[in-house]
Amino acid sequence: xxxxxPFDRLACHLEQDPSNLALRIEAICSACQAEQWxxxxxxxxxxxxxxxxxxxxxxxxxxxxxQSKQYGLAIEQFSLALDAAPxxxxxxxxxxTALFLEAQYAQSLEHLCDSSWFTAxxxxxxxxxxxxxxxxxxxxxxxxxxxxxxxxPSDAETLGVMALAWVDLGNVELALQNAAHALELDPRQPExxxxxxxAHSMMQDYARAxxxxxxxxxxxxxxxxxxMCLALVETECFRLEAAKLAIANALRxxxxxxxxxHTHGWLLLMTREVDAAAQAFDQALxxxxxxxxxxxxxxxxxVLQGHEVQARGEIKRALRLDTNCSAARYAELLxxxxxxxxxxxxxxxxxxxxxxxxxxxxxxxxVVPLHxxxxxxxxxxPLHGLAVH
Length: 389
What we know:
Layout: H1 7-16, H2 21-33, H3 37-50, H4 55-67, H5 71-84, H6 89-101, H7 105-110, H8 123-134, H9 138-151, H10 156-168, H11 172-185, H12 190-202, H13 206-219, H14 224-236, H15 240-253, H16 258-270, H17 274-287, H18 292-304, H19 308-321, H20 326-338, H21 342-353, H22 364-377
Helix pairs in contact: 1-2, 2-3, 2-4, 3-4, 4-5, 4-6, 5-6, 6-8, 8-9, 8-10, 9-10, 10-11, 10-12, 11-12, 12-13, 12-14, 13-14, 14-15, 15-16, 16-17, 17-18, 18-19, 18-20, 19-20, 20-21
């Protein structure tokens, strides 16, 4: 049986024999286990001055940087370690983890292509699934989750990742099934909480969605997607000030997310803050100048500001990019209403509502009138007297 030596005794031995690399590595590991991170860092830095090519020291340096969320430095140290020990699976997994946490998903995935070493480190299946999920490769992510769960059906983390992938594929039933299983095992599993919230929101069960989000944002207050989901839930419930607070938090964590800027912009429009909404959609435009919905939203802004020429220009740009652009059609509708063309506006709206929603079997008329009625009741959009069929 292996007996662990207390850190204090190891440190004492190391003072007497500072060039003993094996003893230094053992002392560093003991300090890390005791969460004495500053001490561990000092021991590593001193060791690297004498043994700069040691893959073990480089890897431990990476672990310390990883713990302090210095992901760039962790990547640098793990890369040096892997160069010196290319067949070490622990170093490869740690490097992949650091790359993932730095949002370098494709680069992380490159180190996870060969699954021959996953048996020894099954967490690699889940990490690869996470990378694939972030890269939009949902079916492959689910396949890796299933591979991991065949070995350990009670892995809550993997169940949570799979639940979220099912959400993003639109399969609410399987999302809720996997999320529920994960939360039975770990009531604070982040992906499962987010999947549960998202799925319940899709089912318009906003009370359960909000309950899951309350736990999630307690567990991880930096979850931008969680804040964005909360913003959408609050919007659907017409708790607009709460929604604005939630989307502001989302944008702090997802400043490059065009959908978050759109949510922010439309919320501002719903509370009649047109100039602030214009700034939000301008931010979205900086992220992607070819996204039709941004051009359409800017057209809506111009209509509300009384800039008809600019509005028509943006409508044309939006419809060139996407003939079904919803925001551009809404801008057209507003222009018609401004000119008293109520019958033409009604025809445009009914034509839009007659379009199918993907492969859902539903048409826009099945869902949009409910939102229009609710928004009109709160005087958030000027559609008085405009019936939809």
